[in-house]
Structures are given as structure tokens and as C-alpha cells.
Specification:
The protein is 15% helix and 32% strand. By secondary structure, the chain is α+β, with helices and mostly antiparallel strands.
Length: 233
């Protein structure tokens, strides 16, 4: 059975109506119904860096967060979080060091799903083109340096307006850069800022942008997703 992975910049749960509505974001996540979800801008930026999504509500939603929070009330690492179905086994998780000038981050989780293993990296890259390329190199070096090789999916808000150039030049032929569709801005999307990149051997069953009445106003980004068949271990 294919697994579905999704990426969503939730803009701290503040929608186009300027209301912070965590319940709306959780409803959108249920609409997407992915096995693994990478979230960006999930924590407040200042102070205690509290999660904008109630942790108790997440636990009752059928998902569990990968534990990488910076502070007790946080959900993510520099605003990045990974949610996985409660049936999925977490093998290992770690932050991914990035060269940064502003608060950005990436996180990695090694998972076991139905007897198959997969490595997932969620990220939110810099506004600077040169800095983005350096950050992609850091993510690739981190993935290559992991002790156990496994099929790998990188996803998140790449902040790159390029279709094939920009930071995507850093991926060689062993990676497939997917462009599920235009995801920003959510009301009238013109840019494919949110991407999913998969390693060789993963069969792409389908990709897309999740459009619904809720997602059209829930954030300034639309969620993107990909369904994959993993290579047999």
C-alpha cells in the first residue's frame, strides 16, 4: 500500500481572515489524511515558543508529534514539526543543523511503517537564495551521514520561486524533485514554494495540492502531498 506524506506551512494557524484558528488547521489535517505530515511555522516565534496547535488535541486526532521540541510548550524545532500516525513506529529523531542568519530549521525522523523503513526530513528554508543552497547541502550531508541508509523524503517550504533552478540544482540524479503544484499564496496560488523530494527507488503514485474551503483561508500556503510506494527493504 502506498504511504502519503504531506507538507503544510500553517502560518502559526493565522488564516487569511486574520484569525488564529488551531481547530481549523486540525480539520485541514484530517482532510489531507496523510500518514506523515511536515509542518512549518507551528510555534510562536517569541517568548516560550508555545505551539499554536494544542498538544492534547493532536493526541486525540490520531497523530503523535515526533518529540523534538525546543521548549516544554513547543511542538517543533525552530517552528518545524513532524506528525505521524499513532500506528507508525519512531526509530530515531534528530534536529538537522542548518547555516542560518534568521530562525530556520530542519528535523529528521526515521520511521517504520508496516515493516518498511523511511527517513523523513521536514524543513523551512531561508529567503536568501545563496543561503538556501547552503542549507540544502547541509540537509543532504546530514542524510548521507546517517548510519543506516533508507528511502528518504525531504519536504517543506523551500521558499524558492524557481521551477528547476535555484536550490534545486543541489539535487543530483539520485533524487526526484516533485512539484505537486502552486501552493502560495493560498487564495490565488502562483508559486510552487512547497516541495517534496524523494530518493531513488521510491515510486511516485501521485502528487497534488490540497484545495478545500478550509485550506483556502486557513493559512497563506496550501498543503501539498505525495503518495509513494517504498522500495522493499
Amino acid at each position: 500500500m502506498p504511504i502519503t506524506l504531506a507538507s503544510y506551512n500553517i502560518h502559526k494557524a493565522v488564516g487569511l481572515d486574520r484569525r488564529r484558528d488551531p481547530d481549523r488547521i486540525l480539520a485541514i489535517l484530517h482532510e489531507i489524511d496523510a500518514d506523515v505530515i511536515a509542518l512549518q511555522e507551528v510555534d510562536r516565534r517569541y517568548g516560550r515558543r508555545m505551539s499554536v496547535l494544542p498538544l492534547e488535541a493532536i493526541h486525540h486526532s490520531g497523530y503523535k508529534p515526533v518529540p523534538l521540541s525546543m521548549k516544554p510548550d513547543s511542538l517543533g524545532w525552530h517552528g518545524n514539526a513532524l506528525l505521524i500516525r499513532r500506528s507508525i513506529e519512531l526509530i530515531e529523531a534528530a534536529p538537522v543543523p542548518l547555516p542560518v542568519l534568521e530562525p530556520r530549521g530542519a528535523i529528521r525522523a526515521d520511521l517504520r511503517i508496516g515493516g518498511q523503513t523511511i527517513r523523513v526530513v521536514g524543513m523551512h528554508l531561508d529567503l536568501s537564495g545563496l543561503r538556501r543552497r547552503h542549507q540544502v547541502r547541509s540537509v543532504l550531508a546530514h542524510a548521507a551521514g546517517c548510519t543506516q541508509p533508507m528511502p528518504t523524503v525531504l519536504m517543506g517550504d523551500m521558499n524558492d520561486w524557481a521551477i528547476h533552478g535555484g536550490c534545486f540544482r543541489e539535487f543530483d540524479r539520485t533524487w526526484q524533485v516533485l512539484a505537486p503544484g502552486r501552493s502560495f499564496p493560498s487564495r490565488r496560488p502562483v508559486a510552487a514554494l512547497d516541495r517534496i523530494i524523494v530518493s531513488a527507488g521510491c515510486e511516485v503514485v501521485g502528487t497534488g495540492v490540497h484545495r478545500s474551503a478550509l485550506s483556502a483561508v486557513g493559512s497563506d500556503h496550501l498543503p501539498v502531498f505525495a503518495s509513494l510506494n517504498l522500495p522493499k527493504n
